[in-house]
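Hi! If you just cloned this repository, the fastest way to understand the data is to look at a raw example. We've pasted two of them here, unedited. The first protein comes first, obviously.
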Amino acid sequence: MIRKHRREASEIMHAGLAAAALAGAFLLRFEFSLESEYRRMLWLALPFVLAAKTAVFRAFSLRDLSWRFIGFADLSRIAAANVIASGACVALLRMGIGSAFPRSIYVLDLILCCGLLMAVRAAARYGSERRASRGPRGARRILIYGAGQAGRMLLSEIRANSGWSGHVVGIVDDDPAKFGQWLNGARVWGPGTQLAEIARRKRVDEVLLAIPSAPVATIAAILERCHAVPLATKIIPPLTELVKTRVLAEQIREVRAEDLLGRPPVRLEEAALRGALTGKIVLVTGAAGSIGSELCRQIAHFDPRAIIGFDQAETALFHLEQELRARFPRLVFHAEVGSIQNPRRVAGLFRDYRPQSVYHAAAYKHVPVMETHLFEAIENNVFGTHHVARSAANFGAETFVLVSSDKAVRPANIMGASKRMAELVSLAMAAESPGTRFLAVRFGNVLGSSGSVIPRFKQQIAEGGPLTVTHPEMQRFFMTIPEAAQLVLQAAASSFSGGPSGGASGEIFVLEMGEPVRIVDLARKMVLLSGLVPGRDIHIEFTGIRPGEKLYEELSAYEEDTVPTPHEQIRAYRGRAVSGAAMRLCLADLRRFIETRDAAGILLCLKEWIPEYNPSRTVLQRVLGRPASMEAGSRLAVAAAR
């Protein structure tokens, strides 16, 4: 009933407090001994005061102020309303009673009325927050890690949110200056090193990490302490993920593997991206894959004229089309099914849509699989790239971007060698087609992509382990799918804008991947994220290096010269010049070797064009054991031994 008539109840409350303030002012002025003359003056003044203050308080909308969420701005409004109301009272009382009214009453009434309105509302908020902080019976007992701005905001939101099911029992922070302080009713109990003792003493159920700018080493150390207790742990996202339009408490989530990678946040130059994408027709090959689909999502934000998604996986392509139509109703998206290995299909695609920007993400990428499928790797990764690049040049595309891999640097496997050949195809096309900018973008492993290590570790943890790692010193570069796609677009836009790198065709861009991560360390962190203890609950086993694998990957070869770019997270390399005529002869040889199933001939051609390529023992044994080309096999054995 009170909620239904909240505004009327507020006005009655304000009137009662105004009357009490006037009576209190008289009592204070005359030391709690009112003669009959001043009692009569109080009763005469009361209607004038109530009328003036009610009108002014209504004009300042004090009846609409929230009682539970009173803040500094609201207190300022209350103070201003009381000053104006007191001025109105002076005018009315001067006219109604005259100069006999004691002037000191005006000052005392202003102070008392303002103080009472503020005190009652502050008490209402305090009582509401105390009830919320205690939470319902059986509520989770929460410890906030971090007494900085994020921690204070989170605490205030939890206290003000009656729907929050947790009860904050305190805060921990590693700053000694904050030990023992009280923040909005919660005490800072001590540093994170005492987390286990504090959690035991306060019977903590869950820790909320409110340190969005903390380095990854700090997050990992806190996570280990929490799971040693054990305690459930959630986190406020990094600053780059926080949504300013949403309350902080709603953005709390589970700790993810990418929180422990320590990568610098991606900085996008949106002006350059808009210049490269807005109003353009954009083709994305491999659009149904992890990188290709994210490229489509990112491009859609920049209002392209149309996106053509090309892939042979028709089911995944269908799901992508449905997603994009739901998220971007105004986007023109064409889902086209086909293979980059079919040159007629690729040429027809360009003829129909005339794309201005091409992002070529279609590729066979799984290293162990490609070690046993040499012909398919060359057919798809090399010739498929050539088909798309040639059509881009023939039909006047402005930009062709090859999504490459760090495995193309001094390759030790078929997949890496085929991607390096794809880069060389792009460089050769750049030399012959000045009307189209050809460039390649290299990056390392992508977290969460199909076939990546993270989904495999999650599955193994769900099955109770063990987690399988090939070698204790195996390490890789990692980045998330969204930032990989963003940096691919940024690299293309940097070339497009003609920055310090010159915007020249034939560049190879390398994304800043941060420090390499040991796979065994990532496995341990994945176990911790699952609330388990490595070595006790889940064991890690080493299975040995697989064919074609290297202990570590590189992003550039020694002979490649660095060229600066406008973006600190992108570097450019100028590779060696590649003759278009020589590349055509190479492709003709590769085509002949594929048709005759001459694996030794293919490897010899790869070795000739990529001298740093070191075929795996598995591939050499399989190839040299075939009778298809004994002469080529002998020459290959000599070349591999150099």
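Ok, and the second one:
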Amino acid sequence: MTGSLAPRLTTDLQHRLLSWRAQDPDPDTVAELDGLAIRADAGDDQAAAELVHAFAGRLAFGTAGLRGAMGPGPNRMNRVVVRRAAAGLAAYLLRSGLGGGTVLVGYDARHKSDVFAIDSAEILSAAGFQTLLTGSPTPTPVVAFGIRHFGCVAAVVVTASHNPPQDNGYKVYLGDGAQIAPPVDQDIAAQIDVVAQRPLSNLPRSSSYTVLGDELPQAYLDRIATLVPDDAPRAVSWVYTPLHGVGTGVVARAVERTGFDQMSIVAAQAQPDPDFPTVSFPNPEEPGAIDLAVAQASAAGADLVVANDPDADRCAAAVPIDGQWRMLRGDELGALLADDALRRGVAGTYACSIVSSSLLAAMAGRHGQPFAYTLTGFKWIGRVPGLVFGYEEAIGYCVDPVAVPDKDGITALVRVLAITAELKAAGLTVADRLDEIARTYGVYETDQLSVRVTDPSIIAAAMARVRAQPPNKLAGGPVEVTDLATGSADLPPTDGLRILGEAVSVVVRPSGTEPKLKCYLEARVPTNHGCDLAGARSRARAVLNQVRSEMTEALGLT
């Protein structure tokens, strides 16, 4: 590519492309940029549109750090963006009086994750921090555990979690072990803005960081070993899939340490693969994602399927119910884990996000334990004072917040195995326990209306529509609407609406990590131990379907 590139592009855009190319240290993204420019010059409208979007602005740094498609340009994940982010983080920490502290850098097995992690380690080391770099792709919760273990002032995990293969991301934690939350995200973003005004070549780098060996995973496994009593039952047959992610190694060692060794791994998904070849979308919640695991479990007559997402901070489970294998909803698994903690007498605050089921509040209240709602995300849940258990419906669970105040798919997996084994020893199943929970607290049926878009304006238009004309009734009953954008004494402001009725709950919000509009639905039906549970669930589902239809219309999605 030369100075006369792509005359179909504006002069200003050509200038920005050339300026970017001159400082990009990655030959792969340089070649990709050249190819796009050549195609755009030849009349390829798609290539021209890609360039316009890639250089239309900078990838926003927020409470999820960075996350986006990889490629050249400031609006993509690449080495220029990552180096600037690392330098911005270093500047923020220095301004906060944390200079010279320890910073831990970890990464998953996605394309370029190791490169982005090394770039970060070099820049943080040059800024005077004692930088620790994991020696291989590592589950996110293991890195989160390492923050307190090593006494870090911050940590970085290069991961896009369960996003598509073309994405990568940059997750930042502070020394309390939790993900960054406002206003820290904007303070770091402001420092990144300053860094972006200077040539990338001016950023000092150093190779004085320390590459970790087995100390970190070993310490994490030592902690996991304490989560299951010595006399607990261990007999459970189960199938595991990491969905081509980084969970296999640590999970295999964790179950060896805890005794749940009747594990069968889905061989086709066992090893890290950044292309995720057997799934269309590497998220256990997505239809079809755990089909291979379920088929393997069905053929083997197993008791349970457990899945992690690619960075192993989320956990999903599937069990036979009424003769059919079914993946548990995030709220169902949350209730199961909360019930387990309450039965064991774990005292303290139970918390979940506002988009999760209100069942947890009822459970904690029945046991005389404090309860708290938070905004969506473990940056909020992990900071709840006195937290002993927290979850959100997007299959994120925190069962050991003292060690990891973040979602942890591996410790959750171990507790799911312990619950299943205990039930099996008593001649019961997970389905039996879910029935018992429903008879004790009522039926709390939940579902989600989720719309993925390519045009973000669709989301903005739907939110504007429902704000202007919110429903005053749902499923025949009156509802109260709260605009979460105004904030409250309990919740900071966020873009969303909360709609509450006597028997229904709805929260509408844009996704924070994906181009989705999400509408979280709940219907509640009272029960007792002698009730027709199947009938109560059927009534709750009917109400839920009616609410789904009414909210679809209210959002203008018909």
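That's it. A detail worth noticing about the second one: The chain has a mean pLDDT of 95.
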